[in-house]
Description:
By secondary structure, the chain is α/β, with parallel strands linked by helices. The chain contains eight helices and 13 strands. The protein has helices spanning 19-35, 60-68, 71-85, 125-129, 160-168, 183-200, 260-269, 280-289; strands at residues 3-12, 40-42, 88-98, 101-109, 115-119, 142-144, 147-151, 171-177, 203-212, 222-223, 228-230, 242-245, 252-259.
Amino acid sequence: MNILTVAVAQYSLSDVPSEEAFWTGLALKIRKAAENGADLIVLPEYMTAHLLSFQPELSHEEACLHLDEYTGEYRSFFQRSSRELNVMILGGTHICREGERFVNKASLFFPDGRIEEQNKLHLTPEERMRWPLSEGDKLNIIETKWGRWAILTCYDIEFPELSRFAAEQGVELILCPSYTDTAYGYHRVRYCCQARAIENQLFVALSGIVGSLPEQRPQIDQGYCQAGLFSPCDMPFTASGLIGAGRLNEDEVVLGELDFSLLHENRTNGAVAPFYDRRPALYEKLSDKMTIGEC
C-alpha cells in the first residue's frame, strides 16, 4: 500500500473534572479523526498525565505511582478504540512500571489487537533528575503493510544517530509524540523533525500538547506546539517539506496523506540524495586522524 492518511493531534490541556470526562473527551477526538478518514492517529507524549489535573498536587514519585494505576485501562481503551474504529492509534506516551522502575512508554495499537511499544531512549534532565524514570535501551522497528516505522519520543528526535540507525533498518516513517511547554523546546523538536526527514529521506509525524491547566501541576502545566507532517525538502514534495501543519497552540487534529510511492521517487530521482550520498569511510578516516589541537 502506498498512501497512508495520518492525523497528528494538538491535544489541549482543557479542564477535565473527572476520569470519565478525560476518556470521553479523548474518545470523541479519536472518533472524529477516524470519521475524517485517518488510517493512523498520533497522540502526544505524556498523554495520560492529563489525568493528574483533577488530583491533589502530587510529587513526581507519587504521580508515577498514580499514573501506573491507569495502565490496564489505558491499554484496554486504545485496543477497543482501534478495533471498533478500524484505525491505528499511537496512544501518546504513558508512565508505567517495568519491574522496579518507571518508564515513559509509547504504545501503537492496531485493529487486530497487536500492540507495539517503545520506551523513551533519551531522557531530558528533568526526567532524569526530578522524575524517577529510566531510559530505554532498544529501538523497536515496527513492521506494517506501509513499510517499517519507528517511534522516537520528543527528545529522542534531537539525536541524529538514532534516526540514521532507524533509516538504515529500512524505516520510512518516524512517529514523534512530544510534550514541549515552551517555544524553545518546541522549535528544537520541530526543526529536528524536519532535519531528520531531510537527511534520511523519510516522513516524520509530530504531535504535541497545547493549552494550559486552570491549576498548575508540577508534572504537566502547559503546552506549546504546532503539530506537523514532514517530508524531504525536494521533488516531488514541496520546497518547505511540509505536508500539513496545525494552527499554533490550537486544540485540533491535522490530517495529511503520506504517499510512500513519492518517497521512493524522491530517493531515486531527487535533486540530492543525502541518505545515499553519505561517506562513512571518510568520516571514519577524519575521526581517526583528529588529534587535540588539529582542526
